[in-house]
Write a structure and sequence with these properties.
The protein has 13 helices and 24 strands. The chain is an alpha/beta fold. A 9-stranded mixed β-sheet has the order 2-1-10-9-11-12-13-14-15. The structure holds malonyl-coenzyme A (MLC) and adenosine monophosphate (AMP).
């Protein structure tokens, strides 16, 4: 958190609440007082002041925070709470245990975040090696894995971004991103607090709300930018901003060009992952190139390799898997040394699974993903395997293959190809909805007689994607 005792009353505005830094600190200290040295605590991450206060309170106390998506289905929620071994669940005061999704943890004590309570307790700054966040993120198969992010990695990432984007206390950051991922929580909340800029979280990222907020710095995923581009009056209102930033998925060139015409801004695009935080970005004082994500951030090193792990030239033409290393990387997946080992190259660099080119000038282009089994829809990362398992749990389903089909608004659309008897697509979507969060539901279900398979019996997903 910024060390200056900034007392602007609207330093943070979210929902119908605003707070100054001293006020936030005394609310957060009251939460920290309740945690009594717990090592980990889960939090229901509704887009509210209580979430900001709960996260900051836990970080003050040196307790690692496990964000739980507010719409996570029971199966997903139970996995996150059990796997993380969170000692308690932070929920806004007044949320009814038993009446809301908070209730079905494995008998976890509930700690209310109550904005009527304040405390003046001082807490020493925990060391940079301590875990700050455990972010659950999908892999190609199985349940989501908890990525351990240290305070040091987060601080380094945020300082690098502040430098690259000339982000200062004079900025007003505006966004409406969910608070359980890197984009909305790390950049969108902790970033503003570290820089000391004002933050206005608009609840939901609707174009009209972005337009009305009068910010200097705006964050969004490409789906949000595409919707703003399709709402010219809202887009024109962003002319007075300083910097528009896109990330979490590829920004289509047409969206970049459309927004440049309407807003007068060439957008800054940046690239990152839950496991690496943000590693590559265009700069406020440099060029912005549609279709390219910029230069490695301070301390980050990148390279591309072929399928045998051999280095490829940074000539702007060779395409290979992007590997990254540096101080912003995570400390591994909780309870999953196997997955952790598989995610690293022989010399310890993180294998992103993204296919990229690197130019002689250091500019990166992300050209796709190595696997069809990780889907990006609306900026959310969705593992095909997790959705397939949810479908296969239905007694009428014999086979299921989930892919991301190109979609003009969402980038990719979660689409399920299913072999089943006597069940409709709508029934299957409802069935998945009872287990997983909203954005993991298939948006389309295609009932088919058989899935295309190769001679070894493996489903040929590329054929499903190519139609
Ligand atoms: C959504 N809906 C669905 C559905 N998904 N209904 C059926 N099946 C599904 N699969 C419902 C919603 O609940 C909503 O209903 C309505 O459909 C409209 O949904 P939508 O079109 O998806 O719009 P919206 O909900 O507004 O979502 C679009 C979006 C959202 C862009 C706002 O996808 C989003 O917030 N994305 C951000 C993801 C993110 O933060 N990623 C960062 C990962 S970190 P109703 O009734 O509620 O209106 C990362 C690192 C990095 O990647 O580099 O940043
Ligand atoms: P997540 O773990 O949810 O942060 O998702 C990380 C993934 O998002 C990366 O591996 C990329 O596939 C994708 N991604 C993030 N930013 C960009 C970007 N600017 N361009 C293309 N893909 C991106």
């Amino acid at each position: 958190m910024s060390s200056s005792m900034d007392d602007r009353p609207d330093l943070i505005r979210i929902g119908d609440r605003s707070a100054s830094l001293p006020r936030l600190r005394e609310w957060a200290a009251a939460v920290a007082d309740d945690l009594h040295g717990m090592d980990r605590v889960a939090i229901e991450t509704t887009p509210t002041m209580e979430t900001v206060v709960g996260v900051v309170g836990a970080l003050l106390a040196g307790t690692a925070v496990v964000p739980v998506p507010p719409d996570a289905g029971p199966r997903e929620r139970e996995h996150i709470l059990r796997d993380s071994a969170a000692r308690a669940l932070l929920v806004p005061a007044g949320a009814v245990p038993g009446g809301g999704p908070a209730a079905d943890g494995p008998g976890l004590p509930v700690v209310p975040v109550d904005l009527r309570r304040t405390s003046a307790t001082g807490y020493p700054e925990p060391g940079p090696e301590r875990t700050a966040l455990i972010l659950y993120t999908s892999g190609t198969t199985g349940a989501p894995k908890g990525a351990l992010l240290s305070r040091g990695a987060i601080a380094t990432c945020l300082d690098g971004l502040a430098e690259a984007w000339q982000w200062t206390p004079d900025d007003l950051l505006v966004h409406g991103l969910p608070l359980f991922h890197v984009h909305g929580l790390v950049l969108g909340v902790l970033g503003a607090l570290r820089v000391g800029s004002r933050l206005h979280h608009v609840g939901r990222p609707q174009p009209e709300r972005y337009a009305a907020a009068g910010g200097t710095l705006y964050f969004g995923v490409p789906t949000i930018w595409s919707r703003i581009g399709a709402t010219p009056a809202a887009a024109r209102a962003l002319r007075s901003a300083r910097l528009l930033v896109s990330g979490s998925a590829a920004l289509p060139t047409a969206v970049f060009d459309g927004l440049a015409a309407l807003t007068g801004h060439r957008m800054v695009e940046r690239y990152g992952m839950t496991e690496t935080l943000i590693t590559v970005s265009a700069r406020a004082d440099g060029p912005r190139r549609p279709g390219a994500v910029g230069l490695a951030l301070p301390g980050v090193r990148t390279r591309i390799v072929d399928e045998q792990g051999r280095d490829l030239p940074a000539d702007g033409a060779a395409m290979g898997e992007l590997l990254v290393t540096g101080p912003t990387l995570f400390d591994g997946y909780l309870n999953r040394p196997d997955a952790d080992a598989a995610s690293r190259s022989a010399d310890g660099w993180f294998r992103t699974g993204d296919v990229a080119t690197i130019g002689p000038d250091g500019w990166h282009r992300i050209v796709g993903r190595a696997s069809t089994d990780l889907i990006k829809s609306g900026g959310y990362r969705i593992g095909a395997g997790e959705v397939e398992e949810a479908l296969l749990a239905h007694p009428a389903v014999r086979e299921a293959a989930v892919v991301g089909l190109p979609h003009p608004d969402l980038g990719q659309q979660v689409t399920a190809f299913v072999v089943a008897d006597g069940v409709t697509g709508t029934e299957l979507v409802d069935f998945v909805a009872r287990q997983l969060s909203v954005h993991k539901r298939p948006r389309a279900v295609r009932l088919v007689d058989a899935l295309p398979r190769n001679a070894l019996g493996k489903v040929q997903k590329k054929r499903l994607v190519e139609g």
